[in-house]
Amino acid sequence: MASNVAGRRSARSRAGALIGGFARSRELTLLAVLLVLAALVAIEAPNFLSSNNVVSVTSLAAIIAIAAVGEALVILTKNIDLSVESTMGLVAFVVAVLLKQQNVPMPVAWALGIGLGMALGMVNGIIITVFRVPSIVATLGTLSIFRGLTYLVANGHEINANDLPAGYTNAASQTFFDIPLFVILAVAVVAVAGLALRYTVFGRQLYAVGSNAEAAATIGIRSRTTVFLAFALGGMLAGVAGVLWGIQFGQLYASSASGQSLAIIAAVVVGGVSIAGGSGTVMGAAIGALFLGLIANALNVLLLPQEWLQMIYGAVILFAVSTDAIIQRRTQLAKARSRIR
Amino acid sequence: MTEGVPVAAGERPEAASAPPPVALAGVSKRFAATQALADVSLDLLPGEIHGLVGENGAGKSTIVKLLAGIYQPDSGSVVLDGKPVLLHGPAHARSLGIAVVHQEPRLFPDLTVAENVFIGHSPSGRFGALDWREMRRAADEIFASLSVHLDSSAVVRGLSMADQQLIEIAKALSVEARVLVLDEPTASLSAHEVERLFDIVRQTRDRGVAVLFVSHRLEEVFELCDRATVLRDGRHIVTAPTAQLTAADLVRHMVGRSVSLFPRTAAKIGDVLLDVRNLTRLGAFRDISFSVRAGEIVGLAGLVGAGRTEVARVLFGLDRADAGQVLLDGKRVSFKSPSAALGAGIAYVPEDRHLDGLVSGFSIAENVTLPILPRLFPRLFTRRSRERSLAAGYSERLRIRSTGVDELVEALSGGNQQKVVIAKWLATNPRVLILDEPTRGVDIGAKVEVHRIISDLAAAGLGIILISSELPEVLAMSDRIIVLHEGVMSAEIPRAEASEERVMFAATGQFAEGPSSGE
Amino acid sequence: MTNEQPAAARPQDTTPVSAEASVVTAGRSGNPISWVRRLLSAAARWETLLLAILAVVVYEGMQISPYFLQLDFWNSPNFGASVSGTMEVAIMALAMTPIIITGDIDLSVESMVGLSGAVLGVLWVAGLPLVVVIPIVLGVGVLGGLFNGLMVTRLGLPALVVTLGTLALYRGLANAVLGTSYVSNFPSELTTFGFGYVPGTAVPWTLLAFLILAVVFTAVMHLTWLGRQVFAVGKNKDAARYSGVRVASLRTALFAVSGLVAAFAGIVLASRYNSVRADNGTGLTLTVVLIVVLGGVDINGGKGTIPGVILAVFTLAALQSALRLAGVSSEYQNVAIGLLLIFSVITPQIARQFRVLVDRVRSGRHRPVRDPVPGEVVR
């Protein structure tokens, strides 16, 4: 009989958790807001749903989403990577140079680019974990160092689509069953990263280190190794994003991808990953990227001034984090009050 | 594992045949000025619950931390199956089968209850992936065996201390341990939860696990333990089967310690300074009423988590009350911040001097003047000489041992740091001084001095609220003792009628009396 | 039993107490050794090291070009020109220092430079006189800073996220105010301030403004109790709060000051360029934080000096000038700046670990040292 009661109780709590979870889940809320917004824009400007527009919006959002997944790994450990845009820029440029000047086969060039991204992430990781430089300072430094390296490689030149193998940028507009290739890639990255975070020991260690580093140490988790790996993987995904960036735009400057760090971190934060570490999902980060991409495109198709974009980004970040803070405060208060004896 | 050996409850197994699974052999441990442990030896036998008792500071926690691998002994060693081992860290100790429930939960606030229970040894299924369902099921099973209703898929952030403590216990029970160490596990549990926990501990013992149960609640030791060891001032005093001991014996061994209490000098009791009426803060305490007169020391006793510090926090403007009033000199006050409370003449010496009391990196003088800077230097610019002479005055009055008032506070011993904290609050010239565990972690000499200071301050006409977990201290210092139990006043005992037993009974809620007995 | 105990213990405990009292009085009077020690510790200070670096860079600069130290604040890539070219950054670094000392950070300053410039331009174009425009611009700065501060202290959000948000928000507002256009042809009062000299001297007005602010910040941070409270908050927020320091108000006020100073820096930049665009100041936050960290301020809060930051301003200017004279282009200078930023944090970190090691060996005392965990970074 006791087990029966317990069973009923857990069934009810499971249903309750499902409803509460929907209301509380940032991913679902954001997705709902995103769909409503998309519907409104589509009513206002029908060409929003044209296949060209859809492919270009989602492909760009997919690139940012992949970088945002990498950034989320880092932010989960209670660190931050401001250098991600420079990593992307350097990787994109180096891949293009390899293709143009060295005639390296495309897959090899791409692999090298991804490897370069990982190496740059490891540089960040070493500065942060070995020399114990706070990540905000370290990556503020590498933000300009990696960018400077790009200028060094570019040496005053830019790379045009003509310099690249014929049809190089076609991949960006390619679709399978009407789904853009980049979107498929991003979904794959989110799936792999999401499953790894949830179902592997390493994934849980990322959360543990970000949630309570001291407690993590007492159960034998090596925080420094974990943080280092987060930066390495984050760099690798920034490398992937950099390769795709090159394919998407075809035309590359030494300043390519400048200013994207803000968009990427904004996507992560809007997606519900706590900047204080330990909570959030990569799925949220990816939806956040799509959401911000949609806003940018909406301004475009609605013929609103592009200058509003940054303002909206800023407002969205602040709105997301402050509602989080208020909700969290409320629930904690409620939990405390429910404890009245 | 010695799981094959059946052991009847309460019976001491024959230890001669095999070495004990875990023992301490002549361990000593020193921290700066304090000898925390001196040559302590202890056997933990399979199928036995071993009680470890002693007053605060007797060395119980140090033993727990040695077994947990957090500290390494200066001399002597931890012995596993007769072989001395060096425990490299908590993870190492755990891998050797030593499960420890710490007094303060160390959980991951963002992770779920189930994951907190199993982190480090989570169940995995196909392809080595974590099996969340199994994790939840196993966690639910443990909680069910404890008769605890906790949603194992909720995140830990925001859970009460008691719930977090239960998670810690579940965590220890989730591993096949050969030694289970419980450090004051009942401090924040309800009576019902305690009973369940004891059943579980007994079951664990009957499976052949060696249990070390650390507590300062004697009745629990007698109820649960087969043998008990008394520590005093870091020394091993006695180990004996509980059947051969009486409560009086244990108390005699415990209090035989060289705790020295500065005798209270009589002060002239004046008018009521502070009057607290039906003060309530939801989730912390309710209906607290008492008054403090000039020259009076009011002791606030109770177990950890009874709500003593919470009352002090409201009086000092750190938290807000939900109901009730506070009157200062007959006028109703409600402080929105500590600075407002300080301005009105209330000062609070916080429980944790490292976290809340001192600014490390600041000198003695800088710490002492911090609360009164605007008052001391109305023209904004600070003057070193003024500051130093003021601090030097307090340094002399409180006999702070240092190389001078420019010495950084982190270089001082615990007792002298505490005196700096007190000096800091005295400098605000308060009328009501709240002292929260003022002698915790200070050496004996300094303790006497702190008592002398408190006594002098009362004689000088301050109203003093003394929060302390050390019964002898409260008894010796207080004119009146207010006892809290689970957030409710369970007794108000005048000095003449106070005894350790009476306070302890009220603190454990075994019977309630006094003006506002709620339960 | 409680009655017997104190009586028995009393004699043995009161004796050592009086013995200690004499130790106390002996130790307190100033002794000559402490002066020597203080001198030595001053020599080992970060500021001293910076001064040495500055000297080396100036020497190298003179090797590269004889014009390095020529007293000309404009028109040539020498030290003086480099100094006057960093004034807006230098001014913002002064206000950033107390914020970083309390353990916060303000990433939004570069956008406030853009926003204040945009407001300045729009109001000037609308025909308002400068005496009206400038207070309004400064007011915008205060409001922006207050918003940052209130978001941080009232909602308990990390300063990093809030100011990352306003970094975008204020830049977006600048865009909205000014669009893609630009305003120039400011009146001569403003341009004189931007690149004129104090009459009868060779000191540019902007340098004078920086020096005045530098003196004010030094005085407030190191000679007044307000500064003391800032350090107390940075070293231990809880203890400061328990000591009656109005921690939230203080932090909010520092953000407001930072906003005000950033708006002023926006005016400086506008007057120096004699034009404003919505993207004025883009990327300056990096340099501001660099100067503060290079000046020896601990990014985790609690430690640092304004004189150190002032020295860092000149060191950086000298370095930039030397690099420019050596023909290094501005893109590569950014690499040098980034490297400098990282090394200026690594060096004291290594020195600290070394000192801990030495202390431990020397005293043989076992003090439980909490290992700093990587990740205690984002606030």
Task: List the defining traits of the structure above.
heterotrimer; B: 519 residues; alpha/beta; Rossmann fold; 3 domains; six-stranded mixed β-sheet; globular; disordered N terminus; disordered C terminus; C: 379 residues; mainly alpha; 16 helices
Short description:
The complex is a heterotrimer of chains A (341), B (519) and C (379). Chain B is 32% helix and 24% strand.
User: How many helical stretches of chain C?
Assistant: 16
The span between the termini of chain A is: 28 Å
Strand-residue proportion of chain C:
under 5%
Radius of gyration of chain C: 25 Å
The SSE string of chain A, one letter per element, is HHHHHHHEEHHHHHHH
Radius of gyration of chain A: 22 Å
The CATH class assignment of chain A is Mainly Alpha
Distance between the termini of chain C: 53 Å
Give the low-confidence spans of chain C.
1-30, 365-379
- What sort of overall outline of chain C do the alpha carbons produce when their principal axes are compared? globular
Low-pLDDT segments of chain A: 1-10
Shape of chain A: globular
Q: What level of helicity do the residues of chain C show?
A: over 70%
Give the helix proportion of chain A (percent range). Answer: over 70%
Strands of the largest sheet of chain C, in order across it? 1-2
Largest sheet of chain C: 2 strands, antiparallel
Total number of beta strands of chain C: 2
